[in-house]
Design a protein that fits this description.
By secondary structure, the protein is α/β, with parallel strands linked by helices. It has one domain: 3-Layer(aba) Sandwich (Rossmann fold). Helix content is about 40%, strand content about 20%. The strands form two sheets. The chain has a four-stranded mixed β-sheet, covered by helices on one side. Strands 1-2 form a two-stranded parallel ribbon. A hairpin with a 3-residue loop joins β5 and β6. α2 crosses α3. The radius of gyration is 16 Å and the shape is globular.
Length: about 160
């Protein structure tokens, strides 16, 4: 589950690796762009159509949808805080920020994701970014050059609790 679909790049990569990915996007403009992109992939046929076939777009606020869906894994990539350096963020991401805004409710979304994921929640965040306020410490992190992935394992479920 990609709770913050944005341009759909991360979801497309996951789907290209064989995962079934549900994307959630609350911005109507971004929803329309994503739907158009998925349709173009389907029409292109071949590998692109196969990848798009593993992607499902839901329109709405992830905070409302996640508790109902209770997915195994939730991936959250909210708008990152503004950089302190003078280097500009790449143009496509600046354009997305212009459309969707600053994601002021990122911590709230993470709380909902942590309570809803059956196996794990992954937060994509700037490498040197401060942790989101009110969010527990991750189980582990995967570090890149400029990005980190905070991984939060969900509590172990007993056989009676599993759906």
């Amino acid at each position: 589950m990609d709770a913050t679909a944005g341009l759909g790049r991360d979801a497309f990569i996951m789907a290209s690796l064989g995962a079934q990915v549900t994307l959630i996007e609350r911005s109507e403009t971004m929803q329309n762009l994503l739907q158009e992109g998925l349709e173009q992939c389907r029409q292109a046929g071949g590998e692109y159509a196969e990848i798009a076939g593993r992607m499902t777009l839901l329109c709405g606020d992830a905070k409302d949808l996640l508790p109902q869906l209770a997915p195994e894994v939730i991936y959250v990539d909210p708008m990152h805080p503004p950089r302190k350096s003078s280097a500009l963020v790449k143009l496509p991401l600046r354009q997305v920020r212009d459309i969707v805004g600053a994601d002021e409710d990122s911590a709230e979304l993470m709380q909902v994701a942590l309570a809803s994921a059956r196996r794990r929640t992954v937060l994509k965040w700037p490498l040197k970014g401060k942790p989101l306020e009110g969010i527990r410490k991750p189980s582990h992190q995967i570090l890149g050059k400029s990005t980190r992935y905070d991984v939060f394992l969900s509590p172990v479920q007993t056989a009676a609790e599993k759906p």
